[in-house]
Design brief:
The complex is a heterodimer of chains A (555) and B (237). By secondary structure, chain A is an alpha+beta fold. Chain A has helices at residues 2-10, 16-51, 59-82, 88-106, 108-126, 138-186, 191-206, 234-245, 276-280, 290-351, 357-388, 401-414, 435-451, 483-493, 504-516, 549-552, and strands at residues 210-213, 224-226, 252-254, 257-264, 267-275, 396-399, 420-424, 430-433, 459-466, 469-475, 520-525, 533-540. In chain A, a hairpin with a 2-residue loop joins strand 4 and strand 5 (267-275). Chain B has eight helices and 13 strands. Classes of the chains: A alpha+beta (555), B alpha/beta (237).
Amino acid sequence: MSKPVRRHKDRIRIGVAAARAIAGRRGSVMMGEHHREETTALRVTDHVESRSGADRPGIRLVGAVGAGLAIVAAAMLLGQRLTTVLPSAYVVSIFLVAVLIAAAVFGPWSGLVAAIASFFVFDYFFVEPTFTFDVDDPREVFALGVFLVAAITTGGLAGRLRETADAARRRADTLALLQDFAAGVSATTDPAEIRALVARHVAGCIGATAVLFEPRSGSDEAAESWPQPVTPTKAERRAVDASFAAVDPRAVEAGRFVLRPLVTADGVVAVVGLAREAVTAPGGEAHDGLEALLEQAAVALERSRFAEEGAAARAAAEEERLRSALLSSISHDLRTPLATILGSVTSLRQLGDRMEAEDRADLLLAIEEETVRLSRFVADLLVMTRLEAGLDVRRDWIDVGDPAAAAADHLRRVHPDHPIRFSRTTATASVRGEATLFEQVLFNLGDNAAKASPKGAPIEIAVALDGADVVVTITDRGRGLGREEIARLFQQGEGRATPTGQGGLGLAIAGRVIAAMGGSLAAESRTAEVPGTRITLRLPRAESGAPLDGEEGEA
Amino acid sequence: MSRRPHVLVVDDEPQIQRFLKPALTAAGYDVVRAMDGAEGLAAVRAHAPDVIVLDLGLPDLDGKEVISLIRRHCDTPIIVLSARGAEDEKIAALDRGADDYVAKPFGIGELLARIRVALRSGGRGEAAPVTVLASRDLVVDVDAHRVTQGGEIVKLTPKEFDLLVALMRAGGRVLTHRALLARVWGAAHVEDTQYLRVFIGQLRQKLERDPAEPTVIVTEPGVGYRLALDPAGIEEA
């Protein structure tokens, strides 16, 4: 499995095809994951059964022996009361019950101890002559022997039963924990939630603090911990980093934790810190299901990382799609005039003498017009390149009226079919900005307006004051913009150029330039007072001498 | 010529139409214009043009789709106008049944040459099996399996011969790698472009004066090969 996983990681940044490859492959990864879960679940069952009974030396044994003795003592007291009313042959059954209880409740060792103790106690207290271990009647010896064998056998059986029940319960607990974890991680793809689930379940499994570290440099905080937040010490952090870097990652002790690297085919996805006292305490036992839980956690974390990378790849693919659409729109805008110019020139050269005079004149005019169009487009392209490169827009003192009037003049020359009306209602309309860029913006917007309007429809450019702002409006009587088109305009205002049929670059530039001048761009279409479309540019007014440092940051 | 050939130009760019109309008229053609795919399809039915010049980037229909629709009911030669660099698009257009392409921007001479070739070959339906083909000083006798250049016999292997015949029969139209491979090696080998490179190289060794700067077999980068024509084109002797 390691190969495909690695390969698709490498390919993630390539784009659409890579994203598709990931989507396809992710399916296979998930299948692998599912498979792995099943095998670990099987392993858990083995694991629990093999441990049953073998891991209870020490304290537990002492407790079991004590409990067995205590139960026999209780049986003895009860027996002494009963000897007044019952023959001793019946009292023996009380001891048999005591042995059964000891074995069933406290396990086989307790049962064995209880059986032997019962044998001696019964002999001492209840068999004639009492208060000695001597036995008068040889039949009593036989009865005692039978009692001992019966007690030990039933005690053993009951104890075994009890242990099986114990093991089954622990196995059920473990499976419930694992199932709960699996259900939790499969219900979410949110990496933070998965991290929280891992920490919570590991902590639940070991019954102490669990911490989760991810391979992120920078932050010294643990990525996740349970039950309370944990700030690792420097030494602990170093040990965690070493675990991530290790060629052969294995469990290490560091500070308060035992660090367990979670390893997948891709390497160490995370390091889990287990509270040291919980896993290495003397007599402390291995925690059932911990290994399986850690393994599942590794897979879940790896999957969530793939999901994150997949999302990033999708975003990159979308970005690439936009870029390629913009590029194709730009290349179209460059190619069409070039094709017209080259086609017209070669036609004139090769076929000019066979053409009508007016056709020749029209081809020359076409060449002129396309050359002008091309040079304007190249100018826009240069501005866009400059803005993309992060070069600042100059912030000179300019009177908006001047570039606005210049743009209106320019528009009159390019669109003789449209009356261009320029008006200003204020004598002072000073802003900070770059005059030539601003003129280009207004020209682009006016050009778009003219293209969207029927012949003869006027274009109005107005400069006015509105409170602390200078407001420039470009109003047309054209077909108007749809809601979507306006939305796209605003997207462009944020600096993301999207291709549009007309003047896509012009709008993108307008958005960028106005933003760099600290202003904003708005559009309204077909409202009560606007017959076609109105673009409103709002710029902060720069009163002479007024400090403008506040706006610098908005660029 | 009794009737001026009709050229249908399907292009949504008014500027392109603006220079193509007078240029093609001056070159001796009658020009019909269509500004989008639907108009173009209607014009094919209404005017039965002799050759169609089709821009692949149309506002209403995908240019490749237009080719398929035209091919459903006629074999009129189609010359595609497409952007330089969009090789996949050109190949797709040729596979759909376009006859040739011209990359924008182009000189009018290039387009006129393609139109002449297209008109001569008269569409995709290959003419009755011609047994002797000639271009410039190159003569191929298909039946006799004999190739002469400037009167001298050129010895070709069977595959080289088949390749040359395929190119000669196309008469100056571009043939895509796939088309050439299918014709010479069979449908199972359409992906084996390296065969072509090797055999075209061998052919050039034998036919070109300077194999490094071929003038007989021209490479169309990323698309295929074509035979370079003398102004008279291929004679069918």
